[in-house]
Amino acid sequence: MKAILKLEELMLFNFSVILFERLPFEWWWFLLLLLVPDISMLGYMFSKKIGAYSYNIFHHRGLAIFIYLFGGFLGMPVLQLIGIMLFAHIAMDRTFGYGLKYTKGFKYTHLGEIGGSNG
Fold it and tell me: CA-CA distance, 88 to 83, in Å (whole number)?
């Protein structure tokens, strides 16, 4: 992955920190919840296809934004927290080159092959 894309994802991660700061939660919640979306990898215990689909649902930026905005519309900080944590996790993952998964295996992503020479 190119350096400029990693920088963009890092800035999106920083944006999620700013949004989190505006919510009524202690900072330890951010640290505690940051890796929770990776529970979606349990789908790989059943098959590559189920694993890819479950991973991609929990790593879809559009879903994160929708949950955050829906929480804002309803005045529910917990939903906003869920959206922010998904957004932050996605940005962190993509900073490290982990993209949305193809069904042929975990290491095959829209950003290239994990462990391959994709930049």
Answer: 9
